[in-house]
Each structure stands twice: as C-alpha cells, then as structure tokens.
Amino acid sequence: MLYLLLYPLHTEFSFLNVFRYLSFRIIYAAVTAFLLAFVLAPPLIRKLQEIKLGQNIRDDGPSRHQTKSGTPTMGGLLIIFAVVLSTLLWADLTNHYIWLAVLATVGFGLVGFADDYIKFVGKRSKGLTASQKFLAQGMVALAIGMFFYFLPGYSTQLSVPFFKSFTPDLGWLYIPFAVLVIVGASNAVNLTDGLDGLAVGPIMIASLAYTIVVYVVGNRITAEYLLIPHIDGAGELAVFTAAIFGASLGFLWFNTYPASVFMGDVGSLPLGAALGTVAVISKHELLLLWVGGVFVIEASSVIFQVASFKSRGKRIFLMAPIHHHFEMKGWEEPKVVVRLWIVAILLALLSLSTLKLR
Asked: Could you give the residue ranges of the DSSP H alpha helices within 91-199?
C-alpha cells in the first residue's frame, strides 16, 4: 500500500525513492510487524483474561504443566493481524504471490480460529474433529495448488536439493503435492506448539531462511548463477516472510517461558501454511523438510509413536510429540526449547548451503 501510494511521488520527493528497494521494505515490514505485536499484545492478553479464554492442560502430560492452566490462548490472532497488516503496508500489492500468501494465512487462520473457538468458547475439549479440520485445510490448500497448476508459465517441476539437473516433472500430480506440503507444514507446526516459545522460535528461523530463498529466487541474475529456478515476482514475498519474522519476534516477548499467552491453533495452523505456501511459490518445496526440520521431527515422532503402538502395542517415546519425551526424561522446559532452537538454526544453515552445493 505504501509502495503504491508513495513510490510514484519519488519524482517530486527524491527521498521516496527508497520504496523501490526491496531490502528497505523487507526491513520495515519486519519492524512494523514487531511493533504491532509488541504494542498490541498487553491489551489483548488483558482482554483474553477478562473473558477467561484460558488454555486447558492435558492430564497425561508432565505434571509441571498443570500450573499453566488458564493461561490466555488464541494469541495467534495478534501474529496474523501483524503479519497481514505489515505485508499490506509494505508489499507491492500488484504482485499476485503476495495475495496468495495472505489468502493461505487468513484461510488457515479461520480454520484455527474455528477450532479454538469451539474448544474454548463452545467448551468442546477437542474442537473441530480431525476430518473437519483436514477437510477445511485441504479445501484452502487445493485452491492454492490449482492456482499454481493453471498459472501460465508456472512449472510443475521439483527443485531437488543438491541436484542441478534432476528436476522431476509431476504434471497434474503437482496439485496434490502442493496440498500435502501446505497442509503438512500447517499441522507439523501445530504439533510443535506444546512448550513456551517452542514453535515460534523455529518459525522465526524458517521465515528468515525463506526470506533469503525468495529474495534469491526472485533475482534473475542470482538465480541463474546458483542454478536454481527463477520465479519472476517471488522476491516480493521476502516482505511477507520478514513480516512473519517480526510478528513472531514481538509475540515471543510474551510467549517466552513462563508464557503470558499461547498462540493456539489460530496461530500455529496459518503460520505453518504460510511457510508451506512460500515454499511452493519459490519452487523449494523439498527444502522445507530441512528448513522446518524441527517441525518434521516433531510430526514424525507422533506418527511413529501411533504406528508403533497400533502395530506392536509398544511406545517408542515416553510421550509424543518428542519435546514431551525429553521433559519426561527430566529436561527442564527452557532447556528443551533452546536446544530445539539450536537444532533449527543448524538445519536452516545447512538448508541454505544447498542453494550453492549443486
């Protein structure tokens, strides 16, 4: 919005020429989103406390978590608001990729909101049923996948990390593949959101990594030098991913241990979907397995735990997701969180190295 309103005036006011630089708008999108989250969080927390919208803690988890019962939840509303508003302020709104990313965020945010509303306002402990949730997520992701498939000039080939010539073409199968990436990322983040600051830290790290990815992918010269697909206009998504980083950073101030507010499904589901959508747009879908490695580990621990128990009657972990396993082994919550952040940073660095190592 600011770009479209102010940049055309640069011929009369030369200082407005800064709006043409993507790097300038990336930085200020992050700063704006941070300030929105940081300033609006206290009144939101007070309002959530007033209406007694508190988190219910599962009985089968670590006993120390019972002290968190009643902590305000649905704080993800703040993150989504900050991300969307900051993006609309600083991005080029003629770019269709921006609107697609916003659509994914808002669409999955509505699914998360419905789930949280039913749980905490409607007093149905499990919220939406699994089939209802997956159906709603699938519909939003399907719309996005079909948009890509029918977008003129958009490739259905996969960019495989470490390989410059191996680019399999999925054809129409790219639609269900895109759905899998977006829905999978959304639910993986949701499963990770179980400790104070655990999910939002890797979200920040992944959003920074993809800020670099989309910036490079959107630059023809750099993309050709690195032998990666060039997606015209994808660089503008760096404004969006920077807004995710800034909003998450502002939220982390209040979500760090001991948390004053939880993000809830209304935060975790759209943030994961946003990362999945960016991965699809940038043609670095498989890279998300590395960038979001912590989310993959968390989701995989649940899958293996359920599969093992159903097939053998035995559990692999003391408790799943795996962050609870470490707690049950005696690790303090902050130690689990920070160590998984370290893993996320290392995986993000390794994933960025694949841009060159081909």
From this structure: 96-120, 130-150, 174-192
